[in-house]
Amino acid sequence: MGAFAIAIHGGAGTILQSLMTAEQEKAYLKALQEAVDTGYDILKAGGSAVDAVTAATVSLENCELFNAGRGSVFTANGQHEMDASIMDGKSLEAGAVTGISQVKNPVLLAKEIMINSPHLLFFGEGAMSFARERGLEFETEEYFYSEYRYQQLKAAQQSDEVVLDHSSIENGAKKFGTVGAVACDQYGNVAAATSTGGMTNKPPGRVGDSPIIGAGTYANNQTCAISCTGHGELFIRSVAAFHVHAQMLYQNRSLATAMEDVVLNKLLPIGGEGGMIGVDAQANVSLQFNSEGMYRGMKHSDGRQTCEVYKTSEV
Ligand code: ASP
Q: Residues with Cβ < 8 Å from 32, sequence gap 6 or more?
Protein backbone atom coordinates (compact mmCIF):
# COMPACT_ATOMS: atom_id res chain seq x y z
CA MET A 1 0.00 0.00 0.00
CA GLY A 2 1.39 3.39 -1.01
CA ALA A 3 0.91 6.83 0.49
CA PHE A 4 -2.40 8.50 -0.29
CA ALA A 5 -3.84 12.00 0.05
CA ILE A 6 -6.76 14.26 -0.74
CA ALA A 7 -6.97 18.03 -1.12
CA ILE A 8 -10.02 20.22 -1.65
CA HIS A 9 -10.88 23.85 -2.32
CA GLY A 10 -14.01 25.95 -1.91
CA GLY A 11 -12.92 28.98 -3.91
CA ALA A 12 -10.26 31.69 -3.79
CA GLY A 13 -10.29 35.48 -3.73
CA THR A 14 -10.17 38.46 -1.43
CA ILE A 15 -11.33 36.58 1.61
CA LEU A 16 -10.49 38.89 4.49
CA GLN A 17 -10.53 37.79 8.11
CA SER A 18 -11.71 41.28 9.08
CA LEU A 19 -14.92 40.74 7.09
CA MET A 20 -15.73 37.30 8.45
CA THR A 21 -17.46 36.62 11.75
CA ALA A 22 -16.08 33.85 13.97
CA GLU A 23 -19.30 31.97 13.37
CA GLN A 24 -18.99 32.17 9.58
CA GLU A 25 -15.39 31.06 9.75
CA LYS A 26 -16.34 28.10 11.88
CA ALA A 27 -19.08 27.08 9.44
CA TYR A 28 -16.68 27.21 6.47
CA LEU A 29 -13.98 25.22 8.29
CA LYS A 30 -16.52 22.61 9.37
CA ALA A 31 -17.77 22.18 5.79
CA LEU A 32 -14.20 21.91 4.48
CA GLN A 33 -13.31 19.34 7.14
CA GLU A 34 -16.37 17.27 6.31
CA ALA A 35 -15.44 17.19 2.63
CA VAL A 36 -11.81 16.30 3.36
CA ASP A 37 -12.83 13.51 5.73
CA THR A 38 -15.39 12.14 3.27
CA GLY A 39 -12.76 11.80 0.55
CA TYR A 40 -10.02 10.61 2.89
CA ASP A 41 -12.15 7.82 4.36
CA ILE A 42 -12.73 6.43 0.87
CA LEU A 43 -8.99 6.43 0.15
CA LYS A 44 -8.22 4.87 3.51
CA ALA A 45 -10.65 2.03 2.83
CA GLY A 46 -8.81 1.31 -0.42
CA GLY A 47 -11.19 3.24 -2.66
CA SER A 48 -10.19 4.95 -5.89
CA ALA A 49 -9.04 8.53 -6.37
CA VAL A 50 -12.02 9.04 -8.72
CA ASP A 51 -14.49 7.99 -6.02
CA ALA A 52 -12.74 10.11 -3.39
CA VAL A 53 -12.80 13.34 -5.44
CA THR A 54 -16.41 12.69 -6.45
CA ALA A 55 -17.57 12.24 -2.85
CA ALA A 56 -15.61 15.25 -1.56
CA THR A 57 -17.04 17.44 -4.33
CA VAL A 58 -20.59 16.21 -3.68
CA SER A 59 -20.15 17.15 -0.03
CA LEU A 60 -19.19 20.71 -1.05
CA GLU A 61 -21.97 20.92 -3.68
CA ASN A 62 -24.52 20.05 -1.00
CA CYS A 63 -23.35 22.88 1.26
CA GLU A 64 -24.96 26.23 0.46
CA LEU A 65 -21.88 28.17 1.61
CA PHE A 66 -20.07 27.39 -1.63
CA ASN A 67 -20.83 28.49 -5.18
CA ALA A 68 -21.55 25.04 -6.64
CA GLY A 69 -24.58 22.77 -6.62
CA ARG A 70 -27.00 24.01 -3.96
CA GLY A 71 -25.19 27.31 -3.32
CA SER A 72 -24.75 28.25 -7.00
CA VAL A 73 -24.92 31.96 -7.84
CA PHE A 74 -27.49 33.52 -10.17
CA THR A 75 -26.98 34.44 -13.82
CA ALA A 76 -28.02 37.88 -15.11
CA ASN A 77 -31.53 36.59 -15.84
CA GLY A 78 -31.97 35.07 -12.40
CA GLN A 79 -31.25 31.47 -13.40
CA HIS A 80 -28.62 28.92 -12.45
CA GLU A 81 -26.15 27.60 -15.00
CA MET A 82 -23.79 25.13 -13.37
CA ASP A 83 -20.58 23.63 -14.75
CA ALA A 84 -18.55 20.62 -13.60
CA SER A 85 -15.83 18.25 -14.75
CA ILE A 86 -13.90 15.21 -13.61
CA MET A 87 -10.80 13.42 -14.90
CA ASP A 88 -9.29 10.03 -14.12
CA GLY A 89 -5.48 10.17 -14.24
CA LYS A 90 -5.18 6.42 -14.75
CA SER A 91 -7.31 6.05 -17.90
CA LEU A 92 -7.14 9.74 -18.97
CA GLU A 93 -10.91 9.55 -19.33
CA ALA A 94 -12.90 12.66 -18.49
CA GLY A 95 -16.47 13.93 -18.33
CA ALA A 96 -17.86 17.46 -18.17
CA VAL A 97 -21.10 19.46 -18.20
CA THR A 98 -21.88 23.11 -18.67
CA GLY A 99 -24.94 25.33 -18.41
CA ILE A 100 -27.10 22.89 -16.46
CA SER A 101 -29.75 23.58 -13.83
CA GLN A 102 -31.73 21.58 -11.29
CA VAL A 103 -29.34 18.62 -11.34
CA LYS A 104 -28.55 18.21 -7.65
CA ASN A 105 -24.92 17.21 -8.09
CA PRO A 106 -23.30 18.34 -11.36
CA VAL A 107 -20.12 16.39 -10.56
CA LEU A 108 -22.12 13.14 -10.54
CA LEU A 109 -23.38 13.98 -14.03
CA ALA A 110 -19.80 14.66 -15.18
CA LYS A 111 -18.81 11.28 -13.77
CA GLU A 112 -21.75 9.52 -15.49
CA ILE A 113 -20.65 11.06 -18.78
CA MET A 114 -17.07 9.92 -18.18
CA ILE A 115 -18.13 6.36 -17.46
CA ASN A 116 -21.20 5.83 -19.63
CA SER A 117 -20.84 8.00 -22.70
CA PRO A 118 -18.42 7.94 -25.63
CA HIS A 119 -18.52 11.76 -25.48
CA LEU A 120 -16.86 14.09 -23.01
CA LEU A 121 -18.63 17.46 -22.72
CA PHE A 122 -22.40 18.04 -22.73
CA PHE A 123 -24.22 21.37 -22.40
CA GLY A 124 -27.68 22.51 -21.30
CA GLU A 125 -30.78 20.54 -22.18
CA GLY A 126 -28.83 17.64 -23.73
CA ALA A 127 -26.80 17.25 -20.56
CA MET A 128 -29.97 17.27 -18.48
CA SER A 129 -31.68 14.62 -20.59
CA PHE A 130 -28.62 12.44 -20.16
CA ALA A 131 -28.93 13.02 -16.40
CA ARG A 132 -32.60 11.94 -16.52
CA GLU A 133 -31.73 8.84 -18.54
CA ARG A 134 -29.09 7.88 -16.00
CA GLY A 135 -31.50 8.43 -13.12
CA LEU A 136 -29.62 11.29 -11.45
CA GLU A 137 -31.34 13.29 -8.75
CA PHE A 138 -33.02 16.60 -9.68
CA GLU A 139 -34.03 19.34 -7.25
CA THR A 140 -36.62 22.12 -7.40
CA GLU A 141 -35.76 25.79 -8.00
CA GLU A 142 -36.40 26.35 -4.27
CA TYR A 143 -33.54 24.02 -3.36
CA PHE A 144 -31.15 26.26 -5.29
CA TYR A 145 -32.76 29.54 -4.17
CA SER A 146 -31.09 31.51 -1.46
CA GLU A 147 -32.09 35.04 -0.48
CA TYR A 148 -28.41 35.80 0.08
CA ARG A 149 -27.44 34.79 -3.46
CA TYR A 150 -30.40 36.71 -4.87
CA GLN A 151 -29.32 39.87 -3.08
CA GLN A 152 -25.84 39.36 -4.54
CA LEU A 153 -27.37 39.33 -8.00
CA LYS A 154 -29.33 42.51 -7.31
CA ALA A 155 -26.18 44.22 -6.01
CA ALA A 156 -24.20 43.09 -9.04
CA GLN A 157 -26.92 44.31 -11.37
CA GLN A 158 -27.09 47.70 -9.68
CA SER A 159 -23.40 48.25 -10.29
CA ASP A 160 -23.69 46.63 -13.73
CA GLU A 161 -20.89 44.19 -12.92
CA VAL A 162 -20.31 40.53 -13.63
CA VAL A 163 -18.68 39.40 -10.43
CA LEU A 164 -16.70 36.46 -9.31
CA ASP A 165 -17.93 37.35 -5.92
CA HIS A 166 -21.07 38.88 -4.67
CA SER A 167 -19.28 40.16 -1.61
CA SER A 168 -17.06 42.41 -3.74
CA ILE A 169 -20.04 44.68 -4.01
CA GLU A 170 -21.32 44.34 -0.50
CA ASN A 171 -18.17 44.71 1.48
CA GLY A 172 -15.14 45.02 -0.72
CA ALA A 173 -14.16 41.37 -0.53
CA LYS A 174 -13.88 39.19 -3.59
CA LYS A 175 -14.30 35.44 -3.63
CA PHE A 176 -14.37 32.81 -6.32
CA GLY A 177 -16.67 30.15 -4.99
CA THR A 178 -15.97 27.15 -7.18
CA VAL A 179 -15.30 23.85 -5.39
CA GLY A 180 -12.93 21.05 -6.30
CA ALA A 181 -10.96 18.06 -5.13
CA VAL A 182 -7.82 16.16 -6.12
CA ALA A 183 -6.65 12.82 -4.76
CA CYS A 184 -3.97 10.17 -5.02
CA ASP A 185 -5.10 6.72 -3.95
CA GLN A 186 -3.14 3.83 -2.42
CA TYR A 187 -2.33 2.49 -5.90
CA GLY A 188 -0.79 5.74 -7.19
CA ASN A 189 -3.79 6.73 -9.29
CA VAL A 190 -4.71 10.42 -9.31
CA ALA A 191 -8.00 12.18 -10.14
CA ALA A 192 -9.41 15.70 -10.14
CA ALA A 193 -12.94 17.18 -10.03
CA THR A 194 -14.25 20.76 -10.17
CA SER A 195 -17.80 22.16 -9.87
CA THR A 196 -19.16 25.72 -10.00
CA GLY A 197 -22.14 28.02 -10.40
CA GLY A 198 -19.81 30.40 -12.29
CA MET A 199 -19.96 34.15 -11.82
CA THR A 200 -22.77 36.21 -10.27
CA ASN A 201 -24.68 38.14 -12.96
CA LYS A 202 -22.87 36.28 -15.77
CA PRO A 203 -24.60 36.56 -19.13
CA PRO A 204 -26.55 33.40 -20.01
CA GLY A 205 -24.31 31.01 -21.90
CA ARG A 206 -21.02 32.21 -20.42
CA VAL A 207 -18.71 29.28 -19.64
CA GLY A 208 -15.62 29.50 -17.42
CA ASP A 209 -12.67 27.16 -16.93
CA SER A 210 -14.27 24.67 -14.52
CA PRO A 211 -15.75 22.32 -17.17
CA ILE A 212 -12.76 22.69 -19.50
CA ILE A 213 -10.29 19.80 -19.30
CA GLY A 214 -6.77 21.21 -19.23
CA ALA A 215 -7.91 24.62 -17.96
CA GLY A 216 -9.84 24.14 -14.70
CA THR A 217 -9.28 20.40 -14.26
CA TYR A 218 -6.63 17.91 -15.32
CA ALA A 219 -5.32 14.54 -14.09
CA ASN A 220 -2.62 12.24 -15.40
CA ASN A 221 -0.89 9.45 -13.47
CA GLN A 222 2.40 10.40 -15.16
CA THR A 223 2.40 13.62 -13.18
CA CYS A 224 -0.45 15.07 -11.12
CA ALA A 225 -4.11 16.04 -10.64
CA ILE A 226 -5.13 19.71 -10.55
CA SER A 227 -8.38 21.59 -9.78
CA CYS A 228 -8.53 25.38 -10.21
CA THR A 229 -10.60 28.28 -8.93
CA GLY A 230 -10.48 31.88 -10.05
CA HIS A 231 -11.21 34.16 -12.97
CA GLY A 232 -12.13 31.48 -15.49
CA GLU A 233 -11.35 33.36 -18.70
CA LEU A 234 -7.73 33.81 -17.62
CA PHE A 235 -7.39 30.18 -16.52
CA ILE A 236 -8.58 29.08 -19.96
CA ARG A 237 -6.13 31.40 -21.70
CA SER A 238 -3.32 30.03 -19.51
CA VAL A 239 -4.39 26.39 -19.98
CA ALA A 240 -3.64 26.45 -16.27
CA ALA A 241 -4.12 22.86 -15.09
CA PHE A 242 -2.42 21.27 -18.11
CA HIS A 243 0.43 23.77 -17.82
CA VAL A 244 1.35 22.27 -14.41
CA HIS A 245 1.29 18.75 -15.89
CA ALA A 246 3.42 19.87 -18.87
CA GLN A 247 6.09 21.49 -16.70
CA MET A 248 6.35 18.36 -14.58
CA LEU A 249 6.51 16.07 -17.61
CA TYR A 250 8.76 18.04 -19.92
CA GLN A 251 10.86 20.01 -17.46
CA ASN A 252 10.98 17.54 -14.58
CA ARG A 253 9.67 20.15 -12.20
CA SER A 254 8.13 19.19 -8.86
CA LEU A 255 4.40 19.66 -8.33
CA ALA A 256 4.91 22.64 -6.01
CA THR A 257 7.40 24.39 -8.33
CA ALA A 258 5.22 23.91 -11.41
CA MET A 259 2.09 25.12 -9.59
CA GLU A 260 3.90 28.14 -8.19
CA ASP A 261 5.11 29.07 -11.67
CA VAL A 262 1.63 28.86 -13.18
CA VAL A 263 -0.10 30.70 -10.33
CA LEU A 264 2.48 33.48 -9.94
CA ASN A 265 4.23 33.77 -13.32
CA LYS A 266 1.57 32.79 -15.83
CA LEU A 267 -1.78 33.75 -14.27
CA LEU A 268 -0.90 36.81 -12.20
CA PRO A 269 0.73 38.89 -14.98
CA ILE A 270 -2.44 38.68 -17.09
CA GLY A 271 -4.73 39.39 -14.13
CA GLY A 272 -5.68 35.78 -13.46
CA GLU A 273 -6.60 36.01 -9.81
CA GLY A 274 -7.25 32.70 -8.04
CA GLY A 275 -5.56 29.48 -7.10
CA MET A 276 -5.32 25.73 -7.55
CA ILE A 277 -4.89 22.53 -5.58
CA GLY A 278 -2.71 19.67 -6.73
CA VAL A 279 -1.52 16.21 -5.82
CA ASP A 280 1.12 14.16 -7.61
CA ALA A 281 1.26 10.40 -8.10
CA GLN A 282 3.50 10.08 -5.00
CA ALA A 283 0.78 11.78 -2.92
CA ASN A 284 2.64 15.09 -2.49
CA VAL A 285 0.10 17.88 -2.05
CA SER A 286 0.30 21.57 -2.89
CA LEU A 287 -2.26 24.33 -2.35
CA GLN A 288 -1.40 27.63 -4.05
CA PHE A 289 -3.09 30.94 -4.78
CA ASN A 290 -2.26 34.50 -5.73
CA SER A 291 -5.32 36.00 -4.01
CA GLU A 292 -5.84 37.01 -0.38
CA GLY A 293 -7.24 33.66 0.57
CA MET A 294 -8.53 30.32 -0.62
CA TYR A 295 -10.88 27.96 1.19
CA ARG A 296 -8.80 24.80 1.25
CA GLY A 297 -8.02 21.59 3.07
CA MET A 298 -5.92 18.46 2.80
CA LYS A 299 -5.30 15.15 4.56
CA HIS A 300 -2.36 12.80 3.98
CA SER A 301 -1.86 9.19 5.05
CA ASP A 302 1.29 10.28 6.94
CA GLY A 303 -0.95 12.14 9.40
CA ARG A 304 -0.63 15.70 8.07
CA GLN A 305 -3.89 17.57 7.69
CA THR A 306 -5.10 21.13 7.49
CA CYS A 307 -8.18 23.24 6.72
CA GLU A 308 -7.51 26.94 6.14
CA VAL A 309 -8.97 30.06 4.64
CA TYR A 310 -6.45 32.91 4.74
CA LYS A 311 -2.89 33.32 3.56
CA THR A 312 -0.87 31.43 6.16
CA SER A 313 1.30 28.37 5.98
CA GLU A 314 1.79 26.58 2.68
CA VAL A 315 1.52 22.81 2.54
N1 ASP B 1 -13.50 29.56 -12.23
C2 ASP B 1 -14.89 29.82 -12.10
C3 ASP B 1 -15.43 30.44 -13.35
O4 ASP B 1 -14.77 31.27 -13.94
C5 ASP B 1 -15.23 30.75 -10.99
C6 ASP B 1 -14.68 30.37 -9.67
O7 ASP B 1 -13.63 29.74 -9.58
O8 ASP B 1 -15.32 30.73 -8.69
O9 ASP B 1 -16.56 30.12 -13.70
A: 8, 10, 295, 296, 297, 307
